Amino acid sequence: MKFTTPIRITAFASLAVLAACATAPNTPQEKMTFFVTSANPGKGADFGGLAGADAHCQALASAVGAGKRTWHAYLSTTENGVPAVAARDRIGSGPWQNVKGVVIANNVAELHGNNNITKQTALTEKGDVVNGRGDTPNMHDILTGSQPSGIGIAGQGVDTNCGNWTKSGAGAAMVGHSDRMGLDDSVPAKSWNSSHQSRGCSMDALKSTGGAGLLYCFAVN
């Protein structure tokens, strides 16, 4: 009878461990499917349209090791005053979790209903908490251009998305509060995706109401 030596058994075991490590996620970011952007590209609400906003999400995700997934920004658009592309329709089906593995919503319906987005869970791709109401500077205004249901906002002659995310000067965009806090206890003040309009589309205008030109990013796959 032929016996396998202890050395060969150990070698086989080591190879198995290495193979498992090669296929399993090595960092928390690889399991991440939702984050708030840690920075703005530098032109306020002008991302070069949806494609540019998606590319920004993708670049930040790639920088922390989560670039294997396809990332989209949670943004809506309008055409001639009518809702066009809906944020809710471009982010996949869920579930979504932050960098710490905390699930913020299991599906699109839950995301736009009883979700788990709070100051403690709406983390950046680096795992940092976004400054909220009471912090200096306040950065809780997240660009969305959306109604609470996750679609664009109708209205002729009303800019709610900074020219479909191509303006960095005059205009306005709907924002949500990542910390679910505002000036009062009203529903809009506590909304993560539809709180109020910005004062403009430039970085200075976004900062003036408690923002920093940040986005919600979701993994589509």
List the keywords:
single chain, 221 residues, alpha+beta, Mannose-Binding Protein A, Chain A, disordered N terminus
Would you spell out the secondary-structure blueprint of this structure?
Blueprint: H1 6-23, H2 28-31, E1 34-36, H3 49-63, E2 71-73, E3 78-79, E4 82-83, E5 96-97, E6 103-105, H4 108-111, E7 141-143, H5 162-165, E8 174-177, E9 196-197, H6 203-208, E10 211-219
Parallel strand pairs: 7-10
Antiparallel strand pairs: 1-10, 2-10, 3-4, 5-6, 7-8, 8-9
Describe it.
The protein has 221 residues and is an alpha+beta fold. The chain has a single domain, classed as Mannose-Binding Protein A, subunit A (Mannose-Binding Protein A, Chain A, Roll), CATH 3.10.100.10. Helix content is 23%, strand content 15%. The protein is built from six helices and ten strands. It has helices at residues 6-23, 28-31, 49-63, 108-111, 162-165, 203-208, and strands at residues 34-36, 71-73, 78-79, 82-83, 96-97, 103-105, 141-143, 174-177, 196-197, 211-219. The strands form three sheets. Strands 1, 2, 7, 8, 9 and 10 form a six-stranded mixed β-sheet that branches. The protein has a two-stranded antiparallel ribbon with strand order 3-4. A two-stranded antiparallel ribbon has the order 5-6. The termini are far apart. Mean pLDDT is 91; it is low at 1-24.
Summarize the structure.
This protein is an alpha+beta fold and 221 residues long. It is built from six helices and ten strands, in the order ααβαβββββαβαββαβ. It has a single domain, classed as Mannose-Binding Protein A, Chain A (Roll).
